[in-house]
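Researcher: Here's the sequence for the chain we discussed earlier.
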Amino acid sequence: MSILRNWRHCLFWLVIGCWVGQTIWLAWYYAPDVKEMAWRVASGRTGTAVRQEDPLYRWALTLAAVIPPRDTYIFLDNYEAGKEIEARYHLTPRKHVLLSPAAPPSFLFHALRQEKASYLVVREGKKPWKSQDAVAESAAFLLLPVPGPGLVFKVDYERLPGKFHD
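Model: Thanks. This is the structure I predict for it:
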């Protein structure tokens, strides 16, 4: 009976020791952020804190201010899960056409003209995309100075020629 009691006693203190160790580790891990988290809780900014730190969220809000609600935009994205959907959510009343960055210039220009899109939005502006040179050479595109991870072009779709060949 004494061995059984000793075993339970040791197991109890082992669990308590693991719990204390985990608490100390969490306190050490989150120590740099405790001051900021306490300030956010005290000021009531807990819900928007994570979204405000996301560059895609801030960029989508800027796009919503730049693109008028009745205009159409073409969004070039590599179909990364959630990114295009999040941007579309913030730009809701605007007509949205999704294309891959690998789309050839002829298809991109045809889609811009067909959909009468006034804006071209490239989510990953620093990465090369297939139609980049054609867009840079065309007078129908004006790069807007929108800060964020991507590029935004104002498009005059009427200046794009009607027939395209690669």
